[in-house]
Specification:
With 184 residues, this protein is of the alpha/beta class. Helices cover 24% and strands 18% of the residues. It has two domains: 131 residues, Nitrilase/N-carbamoyl-D-aminoacid amidohydrolase (4-Layer Sandwich); 35 residues, no CATH class. The strands form two sheets. Strands 1-2-3-4-7-8 form a six-stranded mixed β-sheet, covered by helices on one side.
């Protein structure tokens, strides 16, 4: 990602190549960088967005806008849509999802680039059949405010402060997820 001064602000290597077809070395880390107007931009690529952990990682790093570039192909048009909506909803962040359109000798790409609101609703979506451009006004400060003020549907807070209603003021902050503790 290049900033407004023309400098490299973020360099990202896809952490989860799509097995078995992408025979490339996976990246080792997720990245977040400051953007305009209070935006904190997290970047993931294509299949990274099929795994909830990728978007959650950049959200926990402070991203309030997730940028997901992809070359999603048929027959995965529906999963492209619902994974973008789910990543927005799960993490209270905007998702700007850009997908390839058209065909090549191997694939027909699903298009349907979209911008998803932090409540999971699609703000704008392009066609599956033609190239195009769209835009939407994003308000990263609303994401930050929601993360601080929402009591219900604040998945990031509720994940890290389990049962805060029953165990005031902060709930349980330990990690009960053995998968993350016992990663092998």
């Amino acid at each position: 990602m290049i900033n407004s001064d023309g400098d490299i602000a973020l360099r990202y290597v896809k952490v989860n190549p799509w097995a078995p077809l992408e025979e490339c070395t996976p990246g080792e880390e997720f990245c977040v960088v400051d953007g305009p107007k209070g935006a904190r931009l997290g970047v993931i690529t294509c299949y990274d967005g099929d795994l909830p952990e990728s978007a959650r990682e950049v959200a926990m790093m402070g991203a309030n806008v997730l940028i997901r570039g992809a070359a999603y192909m048929e027959p995965y048009s529906d999963p492209w849509v619902f994974t973008n909506q789910a990543r927005a909803w799960e993490n209270l962040m905007y998702v700007v999802a850009v997908n390839q359109v058209g065909t090549d000798p191997m694939y027909t790409y699903t298009g349907r680039s979209m911008i998803v609101n932090f409540d999971g609703r699609i703000i704008t979506e392009l066609s599956r059949d033609a190239e195009g451009m769209t835009k939407a006004d994003l308000y990263p400060g609303l994401v930050d405010q929601a993360r601080q003020q929402y009591a219900d549907q604040n998945h990031l807070y509720n994940l890290t402060h389990r049962g805060h209603s029953a165990r005031p003021p902060h709930g349980l902050t330990n990690n009960p997820y053995s998968f993350y503790r016992n990663w092998k």
